[in-house]
Structure prediction request, 100 residues.
Amino acid sequence: MNYDLYCGSAVPYTHHHTPPFDNIDPYGHVPTGGSVQGDINMYKSLGIPGDKIVSGMGLYSREWNGVPNRNNGLFMPAALQASNLHYDLLVASYINRNGY
Prediction:
């Protein structure tokens, strides 16, 4: 599982919930690590063959309110909403629309 490693009020800053690579937060708000690449490398270092590793990734988005207009909103203080934006809603309402 490579998703939702940093969520809820424990980390009240916008961030990638399924980061392909380690988060690099220039502000120091979000912990580093917990990425798809990092997890795969860890399992391989423990002797698990790469062809036996399957990554579980969240194909949905989180919604944040009150995000400052800095750094494209990434790693900014904000309020995480309880609902998820599932893939079908993302395609219908956001992807390639209104600047997203």
Remarks:
- The mean pLDDT is 84.
- The helical segments are 36-45, 87-93.
